[in-house]
Design a protein that fits this description.
heterodimer, A: 11-stranded mixed beta sheet, 9 helices, 22% helix, B: 4-stranded antiparallel beta sheet, 40% helix
Amino acid sequence: MTTPWSTASFEDFLASRNEPAWLTDRRRQAFAAYQELLKKPLDPEEFKRIDLRALRPDKFALVPSGDAVPLSTLMANRADFGGTVSHIDGKAVASQLRPELAAKGVIFGSWETVLATRPEILQALERAVPADTDRFSAWHTAFCTGGTVLFVPRNVQVDVPLYSLIGLATNGAADLSHTLVVLEEGASATLLEETASLDPSHTGLHVGAVELLVAPRAVLRYVQLQNWSEKVWHLAHQAGRVANDASLQWTVGGLGAKVAHIHQDIHLDGKGAAAEVNGVTFSTDKQIHSYYTQQGHHAPNTRSDLLYKDVIRDRARIIWRGMIQVDVDAQKTDGYQRNDALMLSDACRADLIPGLEIEADDVRCTHGATAGRVDEEQLFYCMCRGISRSEAMHVIVEGFFQRVYDRIPVELVRETLSQAVQRKLGIDG
Amino acid sequence: MRLSKKVRDGMSSLLKIIDLHVSVEDKPILHGVSLEIRQGEIHALMGPNGSGKSTLAYTLVGHPKYEITSGSIEVDGTPLNELDPCERARKGLFLAFQYPVTIPGVKVSDFLRHAVTNVRNPERKDGESLMPMREFRKELKQKMEELGMDTEFARRYLNEGFSGGEKKRMEILQLAMLQPKFAILDETDSGLDSDAVRVVSEGVRKLSGPQMGVLIITHHERLLEYNVPQFTHVMLAGKIVETGDAALAHELHNHGYAQIRERHPVEAAEEQSRQNRPETVGVATAVAK
């Protein structure tokens, strides 16, 4: 029987792609790995707290053609972007870039465009997320439908934010899109990306990957706001590689999806590399948001600073397994990780587990995690000032996220997150 | 006695506490407190530690831990017993906290904008728009300047990293912005150095007037020098045992509570027995186990 992810389907998929041989070869290797990895259990350290039994891959399929349907989004049209790229159901539907940026050699577009003009840029694929990492990365690489590519040449500064939309418009559609960012030495850019669904009742599946490659002295700010409908499975490998004296500032927002699991890796590869990771998640109803974060210090004098703030309500769950890894020669590492969850209901649940694996002997690493409820004395204090209990909740939740907002330099992102949080709070019964 | 025309004409609001009995975790603390405060009046409430002053303050504003077992609290004849703290605030009650709460990440200005909007529009529903930003900022800036506060405070997170004096000044700023009918100041002058006490005392003096009834809970005299009470009440073991004028406050300050205890042996004995109850040495008992 031909199922959406069978060998026959894979061959049909390859036949439809018209891609260079090296890419097809990679896909074939990935598909072989996928079939092998399916036979093996998932890494329990990463997956034991998430129930994936209800995930039925064959219920989802790639959709033949994506249409440029108008989606309700958080950020589109809210700022004057330097360029935008939109994908719906895995297909590029729109793309534009300011001529002055294009003139400087900046490439911002879909896989198809890049394959037609600068295919060598895509050679960088799998540098941060190897296909054989696990079954999801292999599945993704085999069937990847394309995605947004940003390339900024040496010493070019892109001062205006760029915007990428990943949309799902068809009920039951699978999105296997890939975001690739390559910043050459001394380059800088800001990419704001969001995911959105056309219809809140649609089911969907995202098996995605994000690769952020930051060359020496380059500066990348990347934001991804996951805002699918609450019936979408979101399984993603997202990884950044940061070279010497380069910096990556990475903000993730987890708002939508039924179950979202993100494997987020930060590799500090070069001396003096730095990464700041910000997370804002808000889980309601029966949503499960799960993050597996690794801060890998592979070179001396590297800095990483991760701060997540999670609000959970109803029967929702937040799961976080964090790790700071310091290689033996990564002396003078400065690593920090912290994750705080605020629980707004009795039935919600938070599992936050920080961790350190340190092989060097001259490092400073700190970590922490807290989970707590809204302080009744804070509520009482607000109420004594005429603020109703539910409004006080809003005020306190906003304040809880504020410390992450304070770290996000892009005002549009702060505003967007704050409004999305308010909207979710508003559903409050 | 300094009474406004409004008070003499009987137009002012009246906060009435009638034979109030209050328990905390089933332990009776107040044993029948009665008190009437009119808008425009200043009352001092004094008494030794544990006599129930803070309990009265928290009960007035509706802290859920303080259970009214009998008696009532009324403003202009409307009972407040069943109202939550938010509704009481909207009826014009204000408590300046002895230990103000920190609310991380919430800017002073944002917090106050929510508070002011609600107190001035008691019928407001959640989600209705807040007081216009420009108008609010202007008023906040003006009030801060009147109180000699650095306007930078408005951008800080509420009480986060504030010194004791800064927290108390923040309470006074809230008092200034909310302009309640009745303000209860729970040891607003405690734990402060003399400069801070002066600043807070002057602040209260500027704000109080014919539109505000004030109940000052204090151990110190400075606050009362700046805000001379028409009435001084003395609490002992959950009861008001004496009421006098400013001279009584002065006497207590100079001589302590020994004479009060002599004059009220029943309450003094009750106070003594409270101090000997095992609950009050719970920590020691737990350690002994």
